[in-house]
Amino acid sequence: MDEFTGKPVFLTTDIIPTVRKDIETHIVLPDNSGWDFKELPGFFYNQTLETAARKLLGNKKISFIYQRYSVNNYAGVKLAQFYNVPFVLEYNGSEIWINRHWGKPLKHESLSELIEFLNLKAADVVVVVSQPMKDELVARGIDADKILVNPNGVDPERYSPGVDGSAVRRRYNLAGQTVIGFIGTFGRWHGAEVLAEAFGRLLREFPVYRRQVRLLMIGDGPAMPRVIDIVKKFNITDACILTGLIPQEEGPAHLAACDILASPHVPNPDGTPFFGSPTKLFEYMAMGKGIVASDLEQIGEVLKHNHTAWLVKPGDVESLMLGLKTLLDDKQLGDRLGRNARHEVMNRYTWSEHTRRIINWLNKRCG
Question: What is the chain's alpha carbon radius of gyration, rounded to the nearest angstrom?
Answer without folding.
Answer: 26
